[in-house]
Amino acid sequence: MRLSIKKAAKWTIGLILPSWMFLISLPFAAVAENNPVNYTVSVGKIVQKNVHEWFHVYGRVGFDDATLQNVNLAYSGQVIRLPMLAGEPVSKGQILAEIKVDPSVASAYQQALADASFAKSEVMRTQKMLAGQLATQSQLASAQKRLSNARTQLHQLRQKGFDKSVHVIRAEFDAVVASVSVQAGQRITAGTTLMQLGHPDRLKVILGVEPADILQIKSGNTVLLHAASTPNATVNASVDRVLHAVNPQTRLVDVLVRLAGDQARPFLPGMTVSAELAGRNLPHALMVPQSALAQQGGKTVLMRVNQGVANSVSVRVLLEQDNHAVITGDIAEGQSIVINGVAELHDGDALQVKSLP
After folding, report:
1. What is the DSSP string of 314-352?
2. Both 171 and 192 in a single domain?
3. From the centroid of its chain, how far is CA 310?
């Protein structure tokens, strides 16, 4: 019997306890509904303004390839003097190199000289024959044509230095030696490039841009270049072209900027520069502080203040800049929004405004 009483008591307690717990839960639920929690927040306004996107990037200065001049050798020979070094400025007419002409080149000049002399004598002979009616006017014209060609060939060889045993190469304009391809004492063949000359006021800058940002960069966009050699100096330039391929060395996309005249003066080839590169122009953009945004349910939201209640609005971020975000969505200029503690709020929460900037 005792065992039966214990079992009966146990089941009685088991039935009463859940009923007691249900009864005491009702007053708490009623309190929560009648006295909602007020969240103290700071409130701001959605503002509208014209926004310019800027990318902070780095690049390197070099000579403009479009204006580089190759100093080529039109004949074979040997470099006997090479006084110039890469990076050295040169004046127009200054000696760049001295080349000992190959004997075969001198032989070619002597042959051209003989051809011109023979052609001249042929013209004179044909003129005498024409006077004695032993030649025609057509034959004289042919002889004169051969003489003209021979003299042209001889002139070209002289221009190339074939008439000298040692040819001196001089700079054709004020320049900077961009590169030197040969060494003193080296034997070279016809067509060899001795060096490259660059114009000091014709430079290029290659800027590296992240692949994800490259679609925002267009030819003609503004570039503000900062020269390390001149503190606080900023050069205003523009994008010449955008190369739509990733540079395998930098893993960035190259953007070409060309500099001319005064734009190039603060820079030297090989110099590293920083730059502000203009991207998109967003007129009448809606902006909020970044602190006003939160991630909820995989979406970016802000909390609009509607008669003291939080109203969750899903938005899309177009641009982040200076701790602010340009956004789009079901929003308008001047609307009040929560600017801090957004992640703790939910749609419908009661709000107590702390401050209204």
Report:
1. EEEEEEEETTEEEEEES--TT-EEE-S-GGG--TT-EEE
2. yes
3. 45
Domain count, the chain: 3
Say how many residues make up the chain: 357
Q: Examine the domain organization and report whether 173 and 107 are in the same domain.
A: yes
Residue for token pair 């074979």: 76
- In this structure, the strands spanning 193-198 and 47-63 are unpaired
- Cα(323)–Cα(34) distance, integer angstroms: 39
Q: Is residue 314 part of a domain?
A: yes
Residues 320 and 75 sit within 8 Å (Cβ to Cβ) = no
Q: Report the side by side order of strands in the sheet with 95-101.
A: 166-170, 95-101, 77-81, 187-188
What tens digit of pLDDT does each residue of 20-73 get?
Answer: 333 333 333 333 344 456 788 889 999 999 998 999 999 999 999 999 999 988
Would you say 351 and 305 are in contact if contact means Cβ atoms under 8 Å apart? yes
Report yes or no: 252 and 209 within 8 Å, Cβ to Cβ: yes
**What is the per-residue pLDDT across 305-318, written as a single tens digit (0 to 9) for each?**
998 899 999 999 99
The two three-digit tokens of residue 332, written as one number: 């308008």
- pTM passes above 0.70: no
The phi, psi pair for 77, rounded to 5°, reads 175, -160
Instruction: Look up the CATH number of the domain holding residue 335.
Output: 2.40.420.20
Q: Quote the domain boundaries for residue 255.
A: 55-65+201-282
Query: Do the strands 294-296 and 336-338 form a parallel or antiparallel pair, or are they unpaired?
Result: unpaired
Q: Are residues 104 and 190 in the same domain?
A: yes
